[in-house]
Structures are given as C-alpha cells and as structure tokens.
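Section 4.2 – Deliverable D4.2 (structural model, holo form)

The reporting period included a commitment to supply a predicted holo structure for the target in complex with adenosine-5'-triphosphate. Inputs used:
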Amino acid sequence: MPHVELKNVTKRYGNVEVINGLSLAVEEGSFTALLGPSGCGKSTLLRMIAGLEEITQGQCFIAGTEVTDVPPAQRGAAMVFQNYALYPHLTVRQNIAFSLSIAGASREVQNKRVGEVARMLRLDELLDRRPAQLSGGQRQRVAIGRALVREPKVFLFDEPLSNLDAMLRVQMRLELAKLHQSLKTTMIYVTHDQVEAMTLADRIVVLDKGIISQVGTPLELYNKPANKFVAAFIGSPAMNFFKAEIAGRDGEAYSLNLPGGRTAKIVSRGGTVPAAASVDVGVRPEHLKLGPAGAANSHFDGKVSIVEQLGNSTLLYVDTPAGQLIVEGEGNLKIAVGDTVGLSLDPAASHLFGTDEKVI
Ligand SMILES: Nc1ncnc2c1ncn2[C@@H]1O[C@H](COP(=O)(O)OP(=O)(O)OP(=O)(O)O)[C@@H](O)[C@H]1O
Ligand SMILES: [Mg+2]
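Output (structure tokens):
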C-alpha cells in the first residue's frame, strides 16, 4: 500500500488550472523528489498533501487514511519551508519545542525530545540563541528540527536548501541524505535543482505545467528520458538537440540523414514509429566523441567557438552543420578556440524524439 497517495487531483485558482488530474503513489520510507521548472505546480502539490491548500477535485491519502478534508495538524505530515519560517522572538529550544508545547506535552517530554533532535542535528550548543543569531545553515537545521520533533509519518520539504550558498547546500544535502538513512521516514522533496533531486531521491517525479512528465529513478530519467522535456531538464550541461531525417529502418534501428550530409544509425528505445520523417536527435555532451576533422567515422566537422576548462573536464562549444553542440572532453584537452574538430555520436547513447516530443 502506498504511504502517500494522490488520486486524480486537480487544483484550480479561479478558472486557472494549476494541477490537472494528477495521480501519484509514494512508497513508505522512500525519498521522492518533485522536480520541475518554476511555476509548474510543485509547491501547490506539496501544500495540498500538507493540507495547507485545498484540493479542488480528487483525493489525498496518508498511511491508508483519506485526509482530503483533514486539517494540516492532524495529517501526520510535517513541512519544512524554503524561508525557514522560524519564530524570531523564540530561542532555538523554544522554536523546536513549539509544536510539543501547543500539543500540551509535559516539560520533561519537551526537554527530552528537543535534546534528541538537537543532538541529531548538531544544535546542542545553539539552543539558547534566537534565529537572528544563527547562520543560514543553522537556521535551516532548526527548521528541520522543528519538523523532526513532531515525529511525523511524512516529511514534506519545499526547496529547503535554496537560500544557502553553494558549499553549504552540498553539506546540507549530505545531512539530509544521512537523516533519511537513519530515520527511514517517507520524504517528499520539492526542488527545481536537478542535481539535488538526482543526488537525494530514490525516485524523481518530473512535473511539467501541472502534469507528470515522467517518474523514475535518477538513472532511469538520465539514461531513458521518455520525452524531450525530461531529456532537456535532466543533465548539466544540457543534452544537445538537432533535427535529422529518417532515411530508412532496419528492425529497431533507424538510418538518419544528418545535417551536413553524413549518416548515422540509432537504435529505437521502443517508442511508437514516428509519423513524420523529421525527428529530433538528442545527445549528451559526454556522448559526443572528439576526433580529427574529416575523419571517416565522424558525423560532423565543426569549429570550436568557446572552450571552458573546468579542471576535471573541458566543455567545447562547437559550431557544426547541426548548430552549436556542447562537447564534454577530458580535463587536460589541448584544443583552442578556432580549431576544427570531428565529432561522432555514440549511437547507443543517442535519443530520437518525434514531433510529439515523445521518445521513439
Ligand atoms: N494563490 C494563487 N492564486 C493564483 N495562482 C496561483 C496561486 N498560487 C500559485 N499560483 C499559480 O500556480 C502555479 C504553480 O505555482 P507553484 O507555487 O506551485 O509553482 P512551483 O512549481 O512551486 O514554482 P517555484 O519553483 O517558482 O516555487 C503558478 O503559475 C502560480 O502563479
Ligand atoms: Mg515553489
């Protein structure tokens, strides 16, 4: 039985439909990321699970009980917000204990629980400070502590790390992963950061304009995107796309006429046969191989227009007949702006998308 379930949920603000007949089942103990661009409905979805936003149509279940009309405090879900939402006039200890004191827990129980949570989140030394006396990362840990102390059935996180600087974000990401490993509580985590989703979640739900675009493990989404939206959204630098014409079909393999006059054979991923001859080819920067210009086995020749040396890899922006393609090479690549190179596609790691943007 799923631990959190949305059945055919629709959300409308006035006559604007934000979520459109969405169904989703989240397994107990899993870490699920809701990933998508700004405005696609991630927060709305999470707030409907928390009970902070009314569901226009459809149902929500937590631990087998329908909670569609149950008030937030009685759902067994605790939410951590992007802006922390701490009480500024209360100390860390009082902030963490707040929900317990509202629920009428004894002073003894409060102290015990706050002590446990503070140890887990390394806040022991900070219990008597107020939020203004804490760093961003510490405030975020207090916000998590406040959720933790309630011993919820489900944790709901809405972009909890986006106010932190890059280093702290990586550190807090590890702490959240550890927290999930030790608590094994169901977590649903909203983010527009694909790296966060890929590293934290065991399952990612990609949302596009209020509709689920694809659900899968991080590597399923990376290696087998079901459509162009997921292909473009997952991976950094993003996948390259260009148009090609289908010249023929040999079993599962399509022969393509590439821009610039050469041909390639790419194996289908089991999608429907395309209606039109024109397809979009998608290939990730690390799946374009560099070679000498004019080589017999290359698919494009191109001129390097930008070189970005990142240390562990080099990104080349190469102008080809297929447009500008980004190529990821080794860190110590000896290639300069203006050089001409040959590029070959890895046919096993290239993707074809039809005019409906679905994978072929
Ligand atoms: N109270 C409201 N009234 C009308 N429209 C709203 C309201 N709240 C949200 N929306 C709209 O619903 C859509 C989804 O909003 P939501 O906050 O869920 O997006 P999001 O995916 O969380 O985006 P972000 O990554 O920017 O936080 C947006 O187009 C937004 O403008
Ligand atoms: Mg949001």
